[in-house]
Amino acid sequence: MDGQELQKIAGDYAVGLPGTDLEHRLSPDWRLYKVRGKVFMLMTEMPGRPVAILKADPDDAAALREQYADVTPGYHMNKRHWITVEGGGTIDEKLVKELVIDSYRLVVSGLPKSERPVDPRTYGRRA
């Protein structure tokens, strides 16, 4: 999939998650996806390449970077806790959605229980 398709899939999926808000900030080409005011995904273009930047568990982030050529450290973010995903031959729709929901759950789990729109331990997991 190319970068534009990656951004469309990730963005469409993210806006459907409970409590998600979309903001355009920093400049017109940055989109921030937030849950209860906390960012779980950013989208922009690194020189000519549309990307999605997602929060990830540090161990998972390292494994993803090793396994997928199109996953790199988070652009303009903490390199240990964030990953950048760009379109390419190693990325498919299923992986994009998994990365978006994982990022969302990580951020939701850091919210006070009274502010969580879902239970991050169970939301989006298959039985």
Jot down its keywords.
127 residues; alpha+beta; 6 strands; Aspartate Aminotransferase, domain 1; globular
Task: Explain the overall architecture.
The protein is α+β, with helices and mostly antiparallel strands. It has a single domain, classed as Alpha-Beta Complex (Aspartate Aminotransferase, domain 1), CATH 3.90.1150. It is 31% helix and 27% strand. It contains 3 helices and 6 strands. It has a 6-stranded antiparallel beta sheet with strand order 1-2-3-4-6-5. Helix 1 packs across helix 3. The longest helix has 17 residues. It starts with a helix and ends in an 18-residue tail after the last helix. The model has no long low-confidence stretch (mean pLDDT 92). It comes from Streptomyces antimycoticus. This is DNA-binding protein. InterPro entries: YjbR (IPR007351), YjbR-like_sf (IPR038056), YjbR/MT2646/Rv2570-like (IPR058532). Pfam families: YjbR (PF04237).
